[in-house]
Amino acid sequence: MQITGGTIMTNRLPVSHFNFPVEKIKTGYYSDAYFLRTEEILNSDNHHPRVLMQVFQRETQILCGIDEVIALIKTCAHNPENIIIHALHDGDTIAPWETLLTIEGDLADFAHLETIYLGILARQSRIATNVRKVVEAANGKSVLFFPARYDSYVTQEEDGYAAMIGGLKAFPQMLMQKRLVVLV
User: Fold this and answer.
1) CB within 8 A of 28, min separation 6: which ones?
2) How many other C-beta atoms are found inside a 10 Å radius of the C-beta of residue 22?
3) Which class in CATH covers the domain with range 15-183?
4) Which DSSP symbol is given to 84?
5) 110 partner at 20 to 30 Å CA-CA among 8, 68, 133, 146?
6) Largest separation between any pair of C-alpha atoms in the chain
7) What is the C-alpha to C-alpha distance for residues 177 and 42, in angstroms, rounded to an integer?
8) How far apart are CA 55 and CA 47, in angstroms?
9) pTM exceeds 0.90, yes or no
């Protein structure tokens, strides 16, 4: 399946663009328990192997959320200065099993983040991909996007960004319109 159109971001969003509950994240509040157990075992055994984590999707998708993931790692990992990140860009079309992100470092420094960054990528990429399909099917006609009516207001900005990556050009929420113009 070929997916075309939309916005490909070539510049990264700054880390300061995102507002994470850092202490909650670092304590594992949003993490699956087995990732916390992994960190606990590695630290208690003083075992700190350097690993290379590869992240991929199983389907053709429009990548979105990658800048938020990079910011998450830089903000909420333990010893983020020792972690090397390589990533594609928001808006890139990714093929099944294509590596979209690598994280290299001590697993104990970032294992607690896996649940969160996979969730960010899954949601944002799903929205960008679905919007892209709708925009293509509309064949030049206007497409309306009303995310606030079906979900929590706290997801509006990220969902709106993903919709923009997917190819949407207009938003009903004025604040979102102003905020997204700055990003492009």
Assistant:
1) 35, 36, 39, 112
2) 11
3) alpha beta
4) E
5) 8
6) 60
7) 45
8) 23
9) no
